[in-house]
Fold:
Amino acid sequence: MGISIFPITESFAAEIGDVDLAAPLAPAELAAIKQAFWTYAVLIFPAQTLTEQQHLDFAAHFGPLETSVAALNGKARLRLRADLADVSNLNSRNEIWGKDSRTRMIQLGNRLWHTDSSFKYLPARASLLYARKIPPIGGHTEFADLRAAYDALPDEVKARLEGLIAEHSLANSRLRTGFTNFTDAERAGLPPVPQLIVRTLPETNRKTLYVASHAGRIFGLPDADGRALIDQLIEHATQRRFVYTHRWRVGDLVMWDDRCTMHRGTEFDDLRWTRDMQRATVSDVANSCEQESVAIPAA
Ligand code: OGA
Ligand code: MN
Structure:
């Protein structure tokens, strides 16, 4: 029997059944999953039981794995191996973090609309988030379809966006939440990087917006105008009609295409409930400008 696909909307987010991601996948299963991934951009695999290694092995079918940003901060003790991002509210002793903990302040940025690792020169292609423990209320994850958002733009706006390049940095999104306390090593490891604002997905030839709270200025525009345009595009793309809200169940693995979606975590009582999630992240093949041979402007 092949995998089952249950679309949530016609072209965004689908549930995938009849597959055990802990076991080796047949080539036909993997091909069907990839095809669904290019179509829907968000896939939900319910009721999976995965070790860290099985989670990473499944992710590796989609490309090389990223090292988590937390691993850049040599001082922090990590709860998970460095190729998994710890998206929990737990410290390295598995206790709920303190109100003023640094990790808590940094993770607050996940509540803003973003796409993973757009602040890296080689950004993320796909993220795979696995729920080990979830709070009884709140703590959902919302996803916005940036392909549909692009399609819905007026032609004049599409023309104006063509070829524009934004500068992305982790400091931009964290500044929006009030966090500025990066270590020198973190700063040096994460300089601002260029990314196209409109990109084309090679598998489907569809165009998509590529924006995030990590974006700051736009090359060739006054800083304030660039920021205003980014904010306006994020607001456009996150209208309810482009958004799917995922309510987690333990054992869900949710996979999204970082090239054409944004996501954000919703609020929950993080000092009361444990929310234990881990993310494997697959790197893109090249910087977004390089992929489309767009010259990168001098800083
Ligand atoms: C992520 C992320 C949001 C959430 O894992 O990349 O942004 O709801 N997560 O945990
Ligand atoms: Mn994220």
The chain has nine helices and 15 strands. Residues 223-237 form the longest helix (15 residues). The chain has one domain: 4-291.
